Every structure is written in structure tokens, then in C-alpha cells.
Amino acid sequence: MKILILDTVHGGGILADKYPGPGDDVTCVDVYKVTPRDELDRLKSKGFTVSNEVPRGEYDTVLMPIHCPDSFLEGIVYGERKFFSQAVGELIDDGRFRIEVTGVKGKTGFCCLLAHILTTAGMKVLVQTSRGRGSWVDGGLCSEETVSIAPPSMLTLPDGDFDAVICEVSLGGSGKADISCITNLIEDYPIAAGTRKASEGKTSILNGNINIVPKEEIEFWKGRGAGNVIGYGGRIAVMGNPSLGVPLRVRAEYGNGFETLLKGNYLALEYIYAFEMALEVCEAMGIPESSVELGLSSFKGVPGRGEVSFSDGRWTVTERNPGISARSVERTFSTMRQMRSLDGAVAVLDPVNRKVCCKMDFEAIKKVASEYGVTIIITDGSGKTPSLPESVGTLILFVKEGYT
């Protein structure tokens, strides 16, 4: 059988290792021409044809990520086309309890929060996010391994006796998770050169077991073939007036209901949606109320995700995120306005001089800053700290990271 695999930088190499049968003729294409040389050499050493252009001809099967436009297939004939998520769904079956998480915003923070709560409940948890892959130990991710969050990466999960595996997935999922979570669809942005929408990719995460989505999106996802859909939202109430750097008191409707304090070293107010969804997952898993309360109160946030610090007489809020966009900037400003901490604030946006999956709309970000009355400085990506006005109040640092 002749197999054509497009996009070796977003998991194509993993599928080349796992999908073909004995004797299959495999061609791998680096369509974006950014795959590391050592990975291309590795594929060649296995006897695969490797190219940066799609060889014309006839193929029995084409494998490609859903974000690749069909224009890459011009000039070829094929029997069937499968997106990467579909191929992963056919191959993945390790028998471990797996939670897959996709969405537009808030995936990483939610994964880390959930891992922390489950660990507090005595479970051994493996986490795979855009920040790395490893065990969740002592309130943090114990890992130096950076991995892609494209669906095929789930086929390389390390062995180990884990009670639960939590996987952040960029577009879609296997469709075979025990619990599938969609954080939100606040931007149904175009993919595949504008020929498809993000929701088309994320739909593949839906499974026949338990699917958790925002309450306001239940009908949308049900209409895309999801069976058992649970809506999250409305179970966390903020008590009192939130203030930057001060622990946030909330009431959670879980079990008999409880009040607790969330730590002030991160924008807990920005994590409310993550807390809400975590409650639904924990309820589905039967996690005791005491473990949920302890997990929420002891969570320290994710470094660089709404991180709050104080030095040299100034508060700094750091948002280090691959998903920095006008919408995410607006969310941070909105959160800080609720905390009455925007007066005199200055934002610094560092796009980072490296290739990333999403381009930035600087004009849209400037417009948001103007609407909130925040001075914004955009760096050249060199990593140099720009000069700040002497009158700076709170410093808001946005760093656009890269990932694959």
C-alpha cells in the first residue's frame, strides 16, 4: 500500500512510525519546511521517502493534519484521506484512564489545575501540555521534556503506572478519551488557509463517554455528534472584592458546598472557567469534596500564566503563552479592571523572534489596549527590555511563545 503523510513537524513522523503495515511504501513530506534535519534524517534511515514537496502520483491513503489546506493535494490521486486525529483514534489503546483537553483558550491552565487536584486526591498523574510532559509532583510539572501538542504526540506517551493521563491537544483529539473537555470556542478561527474552521478540528475530540463543554456551547457540540455532553459554569462564586496580589475567596458548589481562599500569586480570577470545568470533571470521577477544596486552595497557578509578582515597588503580571492574541489580551485587561489595578498600567508585548503557529494581529491588540486606557509597548522580539515610563503602575508582560 502506498501511504502519503503530510506535515512532519506536527506529528507526521510519529504516524510514519506507527501507522504503516509491513511492506507499505511511505512518503513523508515536510510541507512547511521547518522540520529539524535530524528528524528528516531519522525518517530516511527507516526507508521512507522524505521530501519538502508533495510528489505527484497515486496513493492508497493520505494522512494529514486538519489544519493543512487541501491545496497540498493538487496533482495527486488517492483512495482515502484521513486527518491525523482520525489515525490517532485508530491506533491509540493503552488502557489507561485518559482525559483529553482542547479549546481556544485556557487549555494549559486547566490541565495543570486538574492534575493538581487529582494528585491532591492521591492519584498518580501524567500531564502532557504545551509547557512539557511528565508527572505532576509537589504541585508542579516534573519535566524537562518539551513535546508537541498535536494529536499524534499522544501515541508517544511514556509508560508508567499512572492513575490518570491528562493530554492537552491543539486541534481535536482521538475521540476515544474517557473524558473529553473543550474549554471554549470563543474564536472559531480559520485554519487550512481559510478553508476550514477550528471547530472542525476540535470536533474530533468528542467521545461516546463523557464530554464537558461550556454551558452556552452545549447545543453547538451536541449538533456535531457528541452524545453525553455536560455543561460547565455557574458553580464558583467570587466573594468580596478581588484585589491584585491578595488571596481570592470563592464559594464552590461541590458536594455540600464550601468556601476557600485561592492564592494571590496568580490571577485566580482569570482561572474561574478552569475551576468550573475542573469541578465537572472531578464530579464525573467521584473525587471527594475535601480533595477538591484542598486542591483549589493549594494551587499556585501555572508559571507565566497570569503570574503575579512584586518587586522594586511595582506589581508585575506575566502572561507567557503561545495563544497571545487580541482576545487573550482583552481578557487579562478585563480581569485586572475588575481588580481595580489598571490605573497607570503599562503593557509590554514581546512577540519572541521565533516561528509560531499563529500570527499576531498587532493592530487589533493596540485597539484593545486603547479601549482599556493601557499604554502598550511592542518589542522587536530581540529579548531586550524596553525603557519604561517613570510613572508606570502595574507592568503587564505579554510574551508570545512558540510551539508545534
Structure, explained:
The protein is α/β, with parallel strands linked by helices and 404 residues long. The chain folds into 3 domains: 2-89, Vaccinia Virus protein VP39 (Rossmann fold); 92-298, 3-Layer(aba) Sandwich (UDP-N-acetylmuramoyl-L-alanine:D-glutamate ligase); 305-400, no CATH class. The chain is 25% helix and 29% strand. It has an 8-stranded mixed β-sheet with strand order 9-8-7-10-6-11-14-15. A 5-stranded parallel β-sheet has the order 3-2-1-4-5. A 5-stranded mixed β-sheet has the order 19-20-23-21-22, with helices on one face. A hairpin with a 5-residue loop joins β17 and β18 (258-262). α1 packs parallel to α3 (84-91). The chain is globular, with a radius of gyration of 22 Å. It starts with a strand and ends with a strand.
